[in-house]
Amino acid sequence: MSTSSGKPSAGDFLVILCTNKEQLRQAYEVRIEVFHKEQGFSLESEVDEYDLISAHFILACKSDPKRGLGTIRFSPYPSAGSLNKVEGLPADTPLGPPLTEDQIATAFVKTGRMGKSEDLLQAGAKLGRLALLAELRGSGWGRLLVEQGEAWLANALRRAAANSKHSDAVSMCNIRLHSQMPVRAMYEKFGYKGEGEPFDEDGAPHMLYTKTLPL
């Protein structure tokens, strides 16, 4: 429902986990528009090996759910042994072949099995490729993408823990991200904390931010 000012409200939008070619294509097109066309990052570096194992989400209007207006991805981290080369991906699946929700969740559970610390299993994830089309910026839709993505991740790990044959269930998820310097304050509002010094990534200064998501 729109507000009295005519601007869209949170109830007008959906955050959708991408599980088919069309949804993945929409996520890709938003990324190309924002990171390549607007910000000038290399087209060749836009798709990387993490795309094939990530949970991709799109923001869409309920009245037109097939058109992506924003996107975000959560990648299992660390992901050693899980990555694949991305050369030669078909044009209709630029971010890799579609995965089911269970297949996506399994990749995050595996990081928990590798991330045991102090008798607690800690899953890991890396937040990335958060992008909104220009007309939607500054209205809180980035927060909606982050919060809905975090909620999906927490629920997926809880379900996996409930069905696990292991006695030691995943108890938390450590999320990290590389923030561009101009948007650090946004991530701080979302509960992320900066660590270390700025570093170069793809020719632009970034900073590491982290957050612990309890399960």
| Whole-number tally of structural domains | 1
Question: What's the rounded overall pLDDT mean?
Answer: 83
Q: Give the N-terminus to C-terminus distance in angstroms.
A: 32 Å
Known CATH architecture: 3-Layer(aba) Sandwich
> What integer value in Å does the Rg equal?
17 Å
Q: What is the general shape?
A: globular
* CATH level-4 homologous superfamily: Gcn5-related N-acetyltransferase (GNAT)
Assembly of the depicted chains: single chain
Overall CATH class: Alpha Beta
The largest sheet is:
8 strands, mixed
Domain N-acetyltransferase: 14-214
Protein name: N-acetyltransferase domain-containing protein
GO molecular function, one term: acyltransferase activity, transferring groups other than amino-acyl groups
Walkthrough of the structure:
Residues 14-214 form the N-acetyltransferase domain. It comes from Tilletiaria anomala (strain ATCC 24038 / CBS 436.72 / UBC 951). One of its GO terms (molecular function) is acyltransferase activity, transferring groups other than amino-acyl groups. The protein has 215 residues and is of the alpha+beta class. It has a single domain (10-214), classed as 3-Layer(aba) Sandwich (Aminopeptidase). It contains 4 helices and 8 strands, in the order βαββαββαβαββ. Strands 1, 2, 3, 4, 5, 6, 7 and 8 form an 8-stranded mixed β-sheet that branches. Strand 2 and strand 3 form a beta hairpin. The longest helix has 22 residues, at 141-162.
